[in-house]
Amino acid sequence: MVYAVLPFAYFRWRGYSLEQLSLRSNNLRADIVLILIVFVVEGTVELLTISTAIFSLSGRQLLLGVALTFVLNFFGTVLPIMIFIYSILLPRYLKMTNSVALTIILGGLTYAVLHVGDSWTNYSSLSNGLLSVIIVAIQYFGPGMVKSVLTLRTGNAWVHVWAYHAIAPHVLIDTPTVVEIFHIH
């Protein structure tokens, strides 16, 4: 609600079009080609370097796990991040800075900042807190910049959703964990 529904409703109420919010494609064919290229490269890299655990699931686990993982991540993180950062903030960063490079950096920083409260972070001491912030920056700054580049390049925030967020990494990497959490047999 806070990151997606309310900001989207507010900006639509203020008269912003879907184009102004980077939510409509200006060149669907080019967007689809870019989505496919980025998705294939990213998916391949993830499966070769991060985890192949998704291949160890049974057919039922795969079917139910992929569907559940997609729905949970799409509505829990992908859509709110897409609306809040890449639809609302990124165009404003560009307008404020008049610099594509600075906008990309700010997009990466914003994406990282939204992850400082992730469940694995530990702020029980100064050293743990500092280490958590450093790891968050290392882990999320780069992907946030990639999402910024994809959105600015196409003018369409949906491109990063399908190329570099919803399926890869969430479905490819998170499905085995969701299957385990929800005891899908």
Brief descriptors of the model:
single chain; 185 residues; mainly alpha
Describe the structure.
This protein is an all-alpha fold and 185 residues long. 74% of the residues lie in helices and 0% in strands. The protein has one domain. The chain is built from 7 helices and no strands. It starts with a helix and ends with a helix. The mean pLDDT is 95.
Task: Write the topology of this structure.
Elements: H1 5-13, H2 28-49, H3 59-97, H4 100-113, H5 126-154, H6 157-164, H7 166-181
Can you give me a brief rundown of this structure?
The chain is mainly α. The chain has helices spanning 5-13, 28-49, 59-97, 100-113, 126-154, 157-164, 166-181.
Distance between the termini: 32 Å
Largest sheet descriptor: none
Mean pLDDT: 95
Number of helices: 7
Low-pLDDT runs of 5+ residues are: none
Number of domains: 1
Q: How would you classify the helix and strand content by structural class?
A: mainly alpha
Strand % is under 5%
Q: Please count the beta strands (DSSP E, at least 2 residues each).
A: 0
Rg, rounded, reads: 17 Å
Helix content: over 70%
